[in-house]
């Protein structure tokens, strides 16, 4: 009898709950938090569509690894310019400052210093409350900084106090001790300057190998088996300016190019594929931390473009074009060069540039993207396989073999001949290599499918 009363009560409560929900008992779906679409700063929307990928002329050598193939890509946002030195320095400085704060907090804990004590105590850990942390804090909670396990995971850093960089204002000897570890030893300094030990600037992040997890043979395995953790040194390899050119004087570029504000709007170079990928992870984290503070949905992750996305965007909606501006020549009808490359058998100055130029130089293509040909070659997410066009999907094609360290670069650079500026030309470099002529730009998936470039 009691069981019957219980069942009756359950039915009544369910009926009342349905009546009180306002859906009149109909299937109306679950309404979540309102989505506020946002065009990322500095990006352009590339409307999805189909195009003929690969060489469109009688280039018998080129078609060996780039035969024509009709493919379709979905809509996405892409940086209007290559990532600049200034933008990449924001990443480097964030990693540096976060590493310093972690070291200060650990030492403060070890010596028992608290905010009330002043000095290093001002940087002591705060009590952690994971439920109220934003994305930025949660990453620090997981010890993002690339220092490895410290035993202090789960402790919240104090960001309310500014880091002091002026040696004359260091608050106590403990602060001096921490800052001293961030610089190269005195015996490695010259010209009266101590420089940062950039090997300490590491960014640690985790991601899931979804392609591997999706394989039928891995069905039923735990998610943790497919999570990969990477710790990457983020500072560009400025020695690339010397190493890339034998018997050539490029020391000014090595000394000044990355850090000096005179080059702030120039594309960052000396960045490996792995560093470019780490930058994408950080940019996602940084953006979502702000959106979390505004109680907004997280955005899709920033990432490197696929090879098909890059070529589709570079073409700017022009089918069968040789260059982003059409072609078939690298000069316009007034005899002016359309990009920064190596013209006229090595007359670098003929295109009004010796090395790189500012990221927003020359005319953009019809998608308002600058320097999709020339200036610096650009990393894409794909692994290089000369036969990949033969077997990739015709929708959102992508080849990224984790075991293939040859990564595709596109677009040609300031030191390349015109052939490599063609939108269909393919080249590659190894993922851990950094060059004075390779940079990158990022993309972000567009939420929705209602934007297409060639819909009927």
UniProtKB/TrEMBL annotation:
Residues 43-443 form the Sulfatase-modifying factor enzyme-like domain. Coiled coil: none annotated. GO terms for molecular function: formylglycine-generating oxidase activity. Pfam families: FGE-sulfatase. InterPro entries: CTDL_fold (IPR016187), Glid_motil-assoc_lipo_GldK (IPR019866), Sulfatase_Mod_Factor_Kinase (IPR051043), SUMF_dom (IPR005532), SUMF_sf (IPR042095). This is Gliding motility lipoprotein GldK. Keywords: Lipoprotein, Signal. PROSITE patterns: PROKAR_LIPOPROTEIN (PS51257). Residues 1-22 form the signal peptide.
């Amino acid at each position: 009898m009691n069981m019957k009363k219980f069942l009756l009560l359950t039915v009544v409560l369910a009926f009342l709950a349905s009546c009180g929900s306002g859906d009149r008992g109909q299937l109306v779906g679950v309404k979540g938090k309102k989505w506020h679409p946002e065009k990322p700063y500095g990006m352009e929307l590339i409307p999805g569509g189909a195009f003929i990928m690969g060489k469109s002329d009688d280039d018998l050598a080129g078609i060996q690894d780039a035969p024509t193939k009709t493919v379709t890509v979905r809509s996405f946002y892409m940086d209007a310019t290559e990532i600049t030195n200034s933008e990449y320095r924001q990443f480097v400085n964030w990693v540096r400052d976060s590493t310093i704060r972690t070291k200060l907090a650990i030492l403060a804990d070890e010596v028992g210093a608290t905010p009330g004590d002043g000095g290093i105590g001002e940087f002591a850990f705060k009590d952690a409350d994971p439920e109220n942390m934003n994305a930025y804090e949660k990453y620090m909670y997981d010890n993002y900084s690339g220092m490895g396990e410290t035993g202090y995971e789960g402790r919240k850093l104090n960001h309310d106090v500014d880091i002091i960089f002026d040696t004359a204002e260091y608050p106590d000897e403990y602060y001096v001790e921490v800052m001293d570890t961030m610089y190269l030893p005195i015996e490695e300094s010259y010209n009266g300057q101590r420089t940062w030990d950039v090997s300490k600037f590491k960014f640690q992040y985790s991601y899931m190998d979804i392609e591997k997890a999706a394989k039928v043979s891995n069905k039923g395995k735990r998610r943790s088996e497919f999570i990969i953790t990477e710790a990457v040194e983020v500072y560009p390899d400025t020695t690339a300016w010397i190493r890339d050119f034998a018997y050539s004087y490029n020391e000014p570029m090595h000394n000044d190019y990355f850090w000096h504000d005179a080059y702030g709007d120039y594309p960052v170079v000396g960045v490996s594929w792995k560093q470019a990928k780490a930058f994408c992870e950080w940019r996602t984290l940084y953006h979502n931390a702000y959106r979390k503070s505004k109680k907004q949905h997280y955005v899709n992750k920033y990432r490197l473009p696929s090879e098909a996305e890059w070529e589709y965007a570079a073409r700017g909606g022009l089918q069968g074009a040789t260059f982003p501006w059409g072609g078939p020549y690298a000069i316009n009808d007034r005899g002016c060069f359309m990009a920064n490359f190596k013209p006229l058998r090595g007359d670098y100055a003929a295109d009004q540039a010796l090395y790189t130029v500012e990221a927003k130089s020359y005319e953009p293509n019809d998608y308002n993207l600058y320097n999709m040909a020339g200036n610096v070659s650009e990393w894409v997410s794909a692994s290089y396989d000369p036969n990949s066009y033969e077997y990739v999907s015709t929708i959102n094609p992508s080849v990224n073999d984790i075991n293939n360290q040859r990564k595709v670069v596109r677009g040609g650079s300031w030191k390349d001949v015109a052939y490599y500026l063609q939108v269909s030309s393919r080249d590659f470099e190894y993922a851990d290599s950094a060059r004075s002529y390779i940079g990158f730009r990022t993309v972000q998936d567009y939420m929705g499918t209602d934007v297409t470039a060639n819909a009927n």
